[in-house]
Amino acid sequence: MRAPNEPERKKDKEKNLSPEFSFFLIASLVLSVLFYSMSPVLAVDGEKRLSIVLIDGDEVYVRSGSYYNFSQDYRLYVKSADSDGKRVWLELRRKGISLKDDIATEGSQFVYSRDSTEILNLTVSTIYAGADGGVLVRFSPVYQYLDLKLPMPQTSNGSHPNSSYSEPSEAHGLETQTGGFNVLLFLLGLGAVLLIIGFFAGKGKKL
User: Fold this and answer.
1) Measured between alpha carbons, how far is 63 from 161 in angstroms, rounded to an integer?
2) Torsion over CA: 125, 122, 81, 62 (sign)
3) What kind of fold does domain 53-145 have according to CATH?
4) Is the pLDDT reported for residue 86 higher than 60?
């Protein structure tokens, strides 16, 4: 029996490597297509985990005895003020349920968080005392972040206060574009990968 010479050994080695190289090349192409199709979904999921700003640094005016409506049914009340007009009693409600109340002065922050996620962050910028004993409170800056556990706001515009003394505030809603994930493309790609693996596995056994 004649032993194969060096050129023949090299040729046989190239033949054996050719199916493996083709397999990895095709598998890499298919996986690249799958990753490209899934990347919009991954990006959207990452955005959802971030805080989506509904109100970004605006200012809000609320008179004592009145309230301001925020998105997702949050409502901030200025319950009352002391005789000097230097301190105000604030309360945050949602659908009639009290969520937080606090006594605030100029420069105070009123922050409401839910499950360690900040939802509202308001700074009492100025308290204007009126001759009638009432006050007008200016909140600035005001930040509201989307509460992912509640329904999405119906509109991207900020809610308007239910008081003639309050000034409307424009909300800068961020629209999250949901990148469509083609399930059919994913299944076809997965099937192609399995088919290629099976094909080359069978061919390897024959060799």
Assistant:
1) 11
2) positive
3) Tick-borne Encephalitis virus Glycoprotein; domain 1 (2.60.98)
4) yes
- Residue in 177, 167, 174 with CA at minimum distance from that of residue 153: 174
Backbone angles phi, psi at 128, to 5 degrees: -95, 115
Comparison of pLDDT for 95 and 18, the residue scoring more: 95
Query: CB of 128 within 8 A of CB of 83?
Result: no
Distance in angstroms (rounded) separating the CA atoms of residues 171 and 114 = 21
The full set of domain ranges for the chain reads: 17-49+178-206, 53-145
pTM over 0.70: no
Task: With CA atoms as reference, report the closest residue to 76 among 13, 25, 143.
Answer: 143
DSSP state of 71: G
- 46-50, 106-110, 151-155: the lowest-pLDDT one: 46-50
Task: Yes or no: say if 192 and 30 are a contact pair by the CB < 8 Å rule.
Answer: yes
More confident residue, 136 or 11: 136
Q: Poorest-confidence range of 40-54, 59-73, 98-112?
A: 40-54
